[in-house]
Amino acid sequence: MNESSRPILLIEDNPMDVDLTKRAFARRKLANPILIARDGEEAVQWIGRWEQGDDVPVVILLDLKLPKLSGLEVLRHIKAHPVFRTIPVVVLTTSSENSDVETAYELGANSYIIKPVDFDKFMDVAGQIELYWTVLNKSAL
Amino acid sequence: MECAMSSDALIGLINNAVLLLGLVLVYTFIPQRSESNTQLHHTISGLLLGGISALIMLNPWYLEPGVQFDTRSILLSITGLYFKPRAAVIAAVITSIVRIIQGGGGAFTGVSVIIMSVSVGILWRRQRNADVDSLSWRELYAFGWVVHIFMVLLMLTMPRAIVWDVLKSITLPVLAIYPVGTLLVGKLLEREQSRRLSEIAIRQSEERFRRAMENIPDVVVIYDRDLRIQYINPATHKLSGRAVSEFIGRQDADIWPPEVYAPYMPTLEESRKTKTMRSIEVDLTLPGTGTRTLAITCVPLLDEHGEVREVLGITHDFTERKQAEREIRQLNESLEQRIAERTAQLEAKTRELETFTYSVSHDLKAPLRGIDGYSRLLMEDYSDRVDEEGRSFLHNIQRAATQMNQLIEDLLAFSRLERRDLRRAPVDLHALAHTLVAEYAREIEEHDVAVTVDLPPETIVLADVHGLAMALRNLLDNALKFTAKTKNPRIEIGGRDEKLMYNIWVRDNGIGFDMRYHDRIFDIFHRLHRAEDYAGTGVGLAIVQKAMQRMGGRTWAESAPERGATFYLELPRTS
């Protein structure tokens, strides 16, 4: 399966952030479709869909502060899955708390990126993510 | 004839001496309030001893009518020696009067002997500073000899016609009998004296203990060897409400129900059996009283064969103290509980604050990103439809967002410093300073700042490396900011070992500040400059101060307007 046709799952509750992320990726001419989960529960439901045969994302972008289930709980679910634990999870959040960073890595996060406020920098980050995780990185699935 | 005279004298004088001993013995039986050391007492003693002397003078041995011999010299010298001079003088006066009344050729000599005997006694006593309680036998015997050698010499004052006869007949008997008599009479009085003194001592001691027993608040019981109560002190009435007479001659089991005596009886019996002291602490409810907490101590009293004669039982009522202790313990417990509750409340508050700052970081930044992002998109995608003024508005929106973002970041750094544990460890200050300077390479180059690090290589200080780096970064930020408009800007990082402390400084030649504002610049959000002149959030120096406080150090500054500023960081050398 072509890496650029596989979706990216964006787990993010803030509609403005969702929109800005989509636009940032669009500006980087990213071809991957972007799937959205608006809270922790919705994110976990995606796992069920992949088991049913839906396309497995090439990377998951995970916000930590989410309604219902927190980002760290979602991370625990994904990384506990026998198959889908190999999907790279990039934590993309505003929190720079050491405890959040440490817990995220302990639970198996593949990367931890602090969301910049500045839109230019945010676009930079989107570009780096795309380059690294959808182009350079070879995924297991 | 001469021999017969001498043996007559011997027998006569022995008779008189025996009479003297007998009378002195009788004298010792006369009850006296010996503890009284009054003039009256001494007078009475003098009268009694004078009386005894008079009695023996009425039964003398006669050499011839008017020339008589008796043992008054023994008693009078002893009186002088053992009694106060007042008593001795009174005795001497009585005997002298008697002798003068008796009259005859030997009267003058007789009175002389009386005066001599008393005088030698008084002088001997004075020589010993009245310390005559236990004279040795030898000394007393010697005293007898001295007195009676004088007596024999005084015989020379007899009428010339009989001097020779007198000396011949009495010298040997006197010297044989009188010193021994002196010794015996002295010892008799001395023994009586000491018996009387020990009697006083015993009486005083008894009085002392009786008083103690009657007045101490503890109950004191003396049991005989069958544990029958022989004595019980008045305090028992206060504790039990019963009269002392109800206890005497009875055993505890006859007095109390089993629930009262059962708890302490084994201890009492054990003390009697083992002949050692035993104690026990019991809560007893006596009929008619509440429950009392008592400490009972049993002490066996042994006789001369080492057998238990009596057992002493001492009961100390410390109900009130026990109650107070209990209350103190309860108060302490409730205090501890309250402290724990307060601590838990405080901890909850702290957690709440932490959650709050976390929310601030997340929730305030998301809308900020929206503001910045959409104003940027507007500028880029719709620039053809926005005029110059509109674009400057958008630019201001973005600048405001950037500023607010910085404020949030600084606040988070400050609050993190508050919450984090700062661990002090050896830090290579020289290396740290160079690393930090390297971080600012771009700004330093841009403004052409001359930066010097004046620290010996491998300068080691005890600090939390993150806290110290944060403080130094803020000072470097400031130094760069406030030298931005200075010609030939210079920044110097230096340090000095001050024995107990290590001082680090960051010095610049920038705009400086008025020392009036020294303390305020370290307050959070406090700024000395307008935002358009020098950007900043007013958090930087508050972070420096907080970091130093958390590391047990302090910070201060020296400056003057347009004369640059030096900021100091002081770190303790020991942890």
List the total number of helices of chain A.
5
| SS field, number of helical segments of chain B | 17
* Structural category of chain B: alpha+beta
Low-confidence stretches of chain B: none
**Which value, in Å, is the CA radius of gyration of chain B?**
56 Å
Order of H and E elements of chain A = EHEHEHEHEH
Question: Low-confidence segments of chain A, ≥5 residues, pLDDT <50?
Answer: none
Shape of chain B: elongated
Give the proportion of residues in helices of chain B. Answer: 55-70%
Order of strands across the widest beta sheet of chain A? 2-1-3-4-5
Overall number of strands of chain B: 14
Q: Separation of termini of chain B?
A: 118 Å
Strand content of chain B: 15-25%
Mean pLDDT over the full residue set of chain A: 88
What's the quaternary structure here? heterodimer
Describe the 3D structure:
The complex is a heterodimer of chains A (141) and B (575). Chain A has 141 residues and is an alpha/beta fold. Helices cover 45% and strands 15% of the residues of chain A. In chain A, strands 2-1-3-4-5 form a 5-stranded parallel sheet, sandwiched between helices. The mean pLDDT of chain A is 88. The longest helix of chain B has 63 residues, at 319-381.
Topology:
The complex is a heterodimer of chains A (141) and B (575).
Chain A: E1 8-11, H1 15-27, E2 34-37, H2 40-52, E3 59-62, H3 71-80, E4 89-93, H4 98-106, E5 111-114, H5 119-136
Parallel strand pairs in A: 1-2, 1-3, 3-4, 4-5
Helix pairs in contact in A: 1-5, 2-3
Chain B: H1 2-29, H2 39-57, E1 61-64, E2 67-69, H3 72-82, H4 85-102, H5 107-127, H6 137-154, H7 163-215, E3 219-224, E4 229-232, H8 235-240, H9 252-255, H10 258-261, H11 265-274, E5 278-285, E6 291-302, E7 308-317, H12 319-381, H13 388-419, E8 425-428, H14 429-439, H15 441-447, E9 450-454, E10 460-463, H16 465-482, E11 490-498, E12 501-508, H17 540-550, E13 554-559, E14 565-572
Parallel strand pairs in B: 9-11
Antiparallel strand pairs in B: 1-2, 3-4, 3-7, 5-6, 6-7, 8-10, 11-12, 12-14, 13-14
Helix pairs in contact in B: 1-2, 1-7, 2-3, 2-4, 3-4, 3-5, 3-7, 4-5, 5-6, 6-7, 12-13, 13-17, 14-16, 16-17
